[in-house]
Amino acid sequence: MQLLGVSGSLRAASFNTTLLRTAQDLLPDGVSLTIFRLHDLPLFNQDVEDEGDPPPVVAWKTAVREADGLLLACPEYNGGITGVMKNAVDWASRGKPAPLTGKTACLFGASPGMTGTVRAQDALRQSLRRAGARATPLGEVLVGQAHTKIEDSQLVDEPTRAYLARHLATYVAELRRVAV
Amino acid sequence: MQLLGVSGSLRAASFNTTLLRTAQDLLPDGVSLTIFRLHDLPLFNQDVEDEGDPPPVVAWKTAVREADGLLLACPEYNGGITGVMKNAVDWASRGKPAPLTGKTACLFGASPGMTGTVRAQDALRQSLRRAGARATPLGEVLVGQAHTKIEDSQLVDEPTRAYLARHLATYVAELRRVAV
Amino acid sequence: MQLLGVSGSLRAASFNTTLLRTAQDLLPDGVSLTIFRLHDLPLFNQDVEDEGDPPPVVAWKTAVREADGLLLACPEYNGGITGVMKNAVDWASRGKPAPLTGKTACLFGASPGMTGTVRAQDALRQSLRRAGARATPLGEVLVGQAHTKIEDSQLVDEPTRAYLARHLATYVAELRRVAV
Amino acid sequence: MQLLGVSGSLRAASFNTTLLRTAQDLLPDGVSLTIFRLHDLPLFNQDVEDEGDPPPVVAWKTAVREADGLLLACPEYNGGITGVMKNAVDWASRGKPAPLTGKTACLFGASPGMTGTVRAQDALRQSLRRAGARATPLGEVLVGQAHTKIEDSQLVDEPTRAYLARHLATYVAELRRVAV
User: Long-range CB contacts (< 8 A, 24+ apart) of D137-140?
Assistant: First the structure.
């Protein structure tokens, strides 16, 4: 099973990118994760799309299409989804069929505050639904006060690592059930 | 009074950019509107910000700072704010003070469907609030079935033009009251 | 197949209750719909629950438990779910297992304005998800300008009737697929 | 200055009602708080309203009208506003002028989880806006893990008490500025 992971923050030391790298360590056996960097994606523009997707967009849409599942590390800026993450969703919601259609995604997020990006994850979940994808499992990974749980770009808080591992295992089990 | 307008869609013939151009015609006397194109804004990246805002970001943040008010033409993609618009908000929410802090914005939006971007406008309003800005007036401009109201990149539907004109007049009156 | 329907408005001539009655006519063969009136449900109060659910709550929770599916006619008050509808969800989300857990619901809504209760339906969908239920199908039934489509407590607009019928058929097909 | 407070939870030992009682102790001098119990409010029904508001509704609408400000202790059920709280808003949004119109409200909330009712408060803020009221100040009071901060129906956590006190002081200062 081959998963694709993206982080909605471009900062190298991002808490959310850190969660994604940690997920790489915590995934069940037999599951690999490729992290796709969103840095080169242009802003969505239908006029550009009409002339043909630029190479970074082709790469992004192909990666989504080929993935068995999506890990979405979802930061929150200004009480909502980041422009970076939404822009990636906007591109991947286009085409017939759109790369996102029929995909099953796993969300998690980290923030320095208490709420662990719950608002951004709600917005992302809603947009995925509208694009024909779904987010699962039911439980949420909201890593609040992330600065106390991350050191040297590693998630070091053991309860959070264990919780994230269980979340990922539930997600992978669902992917396997659906794939049968 | 000098307003700044942006559209959350980059498409040249965008319904929302059309609303913005129409607003230019409908504003009360003594109010001018400059349209800022978001095409050149990079994706928000704190690492880039740490090295100094790139020129398009400097231009964007300066334009927001210097404006007496903001007209935000707000499309909806996938049931939410566009990545383009949110990315612009994310940049303008940064700095001490952030360019958005204390600003009063006027929202409107157009969509081919029925709901006139109500979800995107709600998300934008929430993010503005978090960034220390506010949206006003209370009434909403939700231009549904925009393809029946726009011709040759002009808003031709008279009731919609009149409604938008009243909305803009209310907004400008509020700006003037606050400015005293 | 036995469905349970509720309206989030208690008004006898409610647009949303009208949609529900119309659904009764439009459902595929072999599917029956019982409409549950929420008028007698008390406000949720955990102290009351601790002493044992009052009879109207027992009736409501039993009806949800025994239903093969739920039709939720969802009005919008003040840009959100109605207190009436949310209160019903709050009661049905309680217990082990909660009556709502595992249920598949079909949403629709009508409003005099343009947006057809889209905000209320989003809020309802989110609360159902949190209660372990899911809303389907993907498409949305947003009946705007309902006063022009409803006469004598009947939905008379033919395109809307046809759209609602297709929505219900898709929903019932999904229920049947899941039930296998 | 006379404030009105309500809790969106009816449970006697509710965390949110506890916050409200604590607010009574923490308000600046010269400000008094009356707590209105929502237990007797019927479910909103326009047919009932058409025959004349029942006594508990009259009491509620009068209390809102006469208050200089509103303290809203906002629990979260199923990822949203409680039916109890929304029902109270729905009643108070009716009439010409509606009791809520022009009011300035102060929100806070407590939950056993991490997110401190942020979703419910967002929904409440949105509905207040639609009803012509506004929520202030900008900062949010999100009391997560409330069971560790409340003992014997008293908020005992000192940092949270201090934060709530500052929030209330900012709110009262704004009320006084507006009232001038």
Answer: D137/D106, D137/D167, D137/D170, D137/D171, D137/D174, D138/B129, D138/B130, D138/B132, D139/D167, D139/D170, D140/D107, D140/D108, D140/D116
For C104, phi then psi, to 5°, come to: -115, 120
Q: Is the dihedral of CA A91, A121, B89, B151 positive or negative?
A: positive
- Count CA within 13 A, CB hemisphere, residue B178: 16
Distances (CA, A) of A41 to A36, B105, C38: 11, 29, 50
> Cα-atom radius of gyration of chain A, to the nearest Å?
15
State how far residue B12 is from chain A, nearest Cα, in angstroms: 7
Answer yes or no: are the C-beta atoms of A120 and B72 closer than 8 Å. no
- The partner residues of D33 in beta bridges, in order of sequence, read D3
Instruction: Determine the Cα–Cα distance for residues D113 and B142; give it in Å rounded to an integer.
Output: 36
Q: Which two tokens stand for residue D155?
A: 């908020």
- For residues A162 and A26, give the distance between their C-alpha atoms in angstroms, rounded to a whole number: 9
d(CA A50, CA C43): 54
Do residues C19 and C155 make contact, with C-beta atoms less than 8 angstroms apart?
yes
Residue C97, preceding peptide bond in cis (omega within 30° of 0): yes
Using only the alpha carbons of chain D, give its radius of gyration.
Answer: 15
For residue C144, the domain's CATH number is 3.40.50.360
C-alpha to C-alpha distance for B102 and B69, rounded to whole angstroms? 10
Which tens digits make up the pLDDT trace of A41-79?
Answer: 999 999 999 999 999 999 999 999 999 999 999 999 999
Contact D136, D174 (CB under 8 A): yes
- Are the beta carbons of D82 and C39 separated by less than 8 Å? no
Say yes or no: B138 contacts chain D, CB-CB below 8 A: yes
Q: Nearest-CA distance from A115 to chain D in Å? A: 5
Measured distance CA(D68)–CA(C66) in Å, rounded:
48
> Does the structure show a pLDDT above 80 at D180?
no
C129 near D CB under 8 A: yes
The pLDDT assigned to A179 comes to 77
What residues of chain B score a pLDDT lower than 50?
none
Phi and psi (nearest 5°) for C117? 65, 30
Q: Give pLDDT tens digits for D29-83.
A: 999 999 999 999 999 999 999 999 999 999 999 999 999 999 999 999 999 999 9
Range of the domain at A65: 2-179
For residue D88, which of D40, D121, D141 has the smallest C-alpha distance?
A: D40
Residue D115 Cα, gap to closest chain A Cα (Å): 5
Whether residue B12 lies within 8 A of chain A, CB to CB, comes out as yes
The torsion angles phi and psi of B38, rounded to 5 degrees, stand at -90, 5
What is the token pair recorded at D82? 């409680």
* Rg value, chain B, Cα: 15
Which region, left, alpha or beta, applies to residue D56 given φ > 0 means left and ψ of -120 to 50 means alpha? Answer: alpha
Q: Which stretches in chain A have pLDDT values below 50?
A: none
The chains found to touch A (3+ Cβ pairs under 8 angstroms) are B, C, D
Structural domains of chain B, count: 1
